[in-house]
Amino acid sequence: MKTVTLGNTGITVNRNGFGALPIQRISVEEAGKLLRKAYDNGIRFFDTARAYSDSEYKIGQALADVRDDIIIATKTASTTVEGFWKDLETSLSMLKTDHVDIYQFHTPSFCPKPGDGTGLYEAMLEAKAQGKIRHIGITNHRLHVAREAVESGLYETLQFPFCYLASEKDIELVNLCKEKNVGFICMKALSGGLITRSDAAYAYLAQYENTLPIWGVQREKELDEFLSYNDNPPVMTDELAAFIEKEHESLAGDFCRGCGYCMPCPAGIEINQCARMSLMLRRAPSAAWLTPEWQAKMELIENCKHCGQCMKKCPYTLNTPELLRKNLEDYRTFLK
Ligand code: SF4
Ligand code: SF4
């Protein structure tokens, strides 16, 4: 089993981390079965967030009896000190624990620092002093915020999107974390569903020994695939390298990563799926995206008010309304 140490936290875990966002979509019973199977097969790192509805509750229900044997990372998206404490207390209660191993600021638009007037970083320090959290982390999609956090020396871990579609700048960030001894947790290791070969995803990330991928798992079949890598970790081969190169070519340019930071949309458009529908239709079985339900969701694009909110919030500076329009045009050709 391959392991990774997260910077200077001293946390060493199996390279397969469990991303607990998707378990929101399944029942408590199904989630419990999945979490327990992951634990029984050596997965020790579980990443969740206050914002993932009942994900923390499900982890608490499934893993409270093995709490001391696992690492729990969760997040607060609060921008106030009051909200920070409320989130932390709720997380502790949902997770059935008295401490969180890594407490992360959830994609703030800036890098919280002591004395910046928000009081947020000071709250982290206080929570650490009280023993309610062990390590301070931050998650982000914005390269400049992520770099600032790593360079500040204030954060023990960074969670950032990293997969085989990474740019040179993303790779520089991973190397900067290594140099500064900051743990690097890879979010979107499957690029929100765009990457369909997990062996290629695993082998690519394994080349960066300081990274810990967290796989968003919702189905037992997906979990089994990652568990099989405990004993047989995929390594980079000429065939995989050629495949990744082809993927880079086919996904060159601007594409929607499905992160959802542009939402909510006042016209009710599910931007994070609709703006990448063309890719999804070609990379996964298309029938699931052509149902009457999805057709209705795609047609909502016609109601776009061109308010520009989504463009302002997109960390990849995409022209989202334009992207949506193109995706709708393409989608309609599939229906003919
Ligand atoms: S520009 Fe259109 S898609 Fe974007 S937030 Fe406004 S209404 Fe929604
Ligand atoms: S348009 Fe931008 S912010 Fe919205 S889901 Fe796609 S990548 Fe994320």
TrEMBL record:
Signal peptide: none annotated. Residues 294-326 form the 4Fe-4S ferredoxin-type domain. PROSITE patterns: 4FE4S_FER_1 (PS00198), 4FE4S_FER_2 (PS51379). Keywords: Iron, Iron-sulfur, Metal-binding. GO terms for molecular function: iron-sulfur cluster binding; metal ion binding; oxidoreductase activity. The keyword Iron applies. InterPro entries: 4Fe4S_Fe-S-bd (IPR017896), 4Fe4S_Fe_S_CS (IPR017900), AKR (IPR020471), AKR2_Oxidoreductase (IPR053135), NAD(P)_OxRdtase_dom_sf (IPR036812), NADP_OxRdtase_dom (IPR023210). The keyword Iron applies. It comes from the Bacteria. This is Aldo/keto reductase. It comes from Hominenteromicrobium mulieris. The lineage of its organism: Bacteria, Bacillati, Bacillota, Clostridia, Eubacteriales.
